[in-house]
Amino acid sequence: MAELARVCSARGEVVLRRRGDGALELRVNGVFVMDDQETSSEELLASTALEAVRHPDRVLVGGLGLGYTVRALLANSRLGQVIVAEIEPDVVSWMRSGLVPSILDDPRVGVVVDDVRAVVTDLPDASVDAILLDVDNGPDFLVYNENSAIYSSGFLTTCRSKLRPGGVLTVWSSSASAALETAVGSVFGTCAVKPVPVDLQGRPELYYVYQGSS
What we know:
By secondary structure, the chain is an alpha/beta fold. It is 26% helix and 36% strand.
């Protein structure tokens, strides 16, 4: 195990390291967040949004991480612009420096270093085609407790107000959450839930994508 970078922010400790199996791994407050070996759920988060939107001219992603959600979006030639909200400036710096393989040189990408709640709130109403939230491990296993507000019906209602007609919200979670399904359903009328089988360092697990459409 080789530690590549470590920073302590107002939200705790963020560590980037290279595991013995060669995978690049991100941990926050000692909790595994993601690696570059198992990225299928990030790819599904992106493809679910793109499949639901006819013209994805402007998309917002909450959470940069190692960049795989954004990378999957950029692989689709229909994508116009993607705004990335990332609260940790060092995570952005690691990618800009090449410590993490970068997707930030793509002219379709713009990064805002701020809390996703503030970024979404500041958007004009009906101004984006999709909002993708991959900010924490989900409402039932939070890395940072204040992120609980992201999964509330209040913030989800704000997200809906920023979507254009036919727009979509997709939310990533590391576990099934009845509360999240209920919150998305209460705001959007219905909530589609997609389980994603993943291989987590040799252990089979299920991650989840929750979807609401305007």
